[in-house]
Specification:
about 120 residues; alpha+beta; DNAb Helicase, Chain A; two-stranded antiparallel ribbon; 6 helices; about 15% strand
Length: about 120
């Protein structure tokens, strides 16, 4: 159950033609937007490690999971790199993505390869 304090009300005006006359009917709707879901960095890391260990998992995961679902920007970049390689039908593991990680300034600045090896 979402508490009322965590909700931010949003209002919309919707117009549509009225069937009985040539007038346009307008009605105001409001709803509450919930706060973002909590992040689980350990689950993100475990998923990336599993993908690096067994590329066949990507078939099921790629349909449901997009890069914007990752909370940690580093995990997002690693996921993009893994999926790009898998989409090219290339084997993806820490050794094969090392050249790609070393080219990416964002991952390299976070000690990318050392972190990649801790995932597996």
């Amino acid at each position: 159950m979402i508490e009322k304090e965590s909700l931010a009300p949003e209002k919309f005006l919707i117009e549509w033609p009225n069937d009985q006359s040539n007038c346009v009917k307008t009605q105001q709707f409001s709803f509450a937007r919930a706060q973002p879901l909590p992040a689980n960095l350990q689950a993100e890391a475990a998923l990336l490690g599993a993908l690096l260990s067994d590329n066949r998992l990507a078939e099921d995961i790629q349909i449901r999971l997009r890069e914007e679902h990752f909370f940690d920007p580093t995990h997002r970049l690693i996921y993009q790199t893994i999926m790009r390689q898998i989409d090219r039908n290339q084997l993806t593991n820490p050794v094969t993505i090392q050249p790609l990680i070393e080219k990416d300034v964002g991952l390299l600045s976070k000690d990318g390869m050392r972190y990649i090896y801790t995932l597996v």
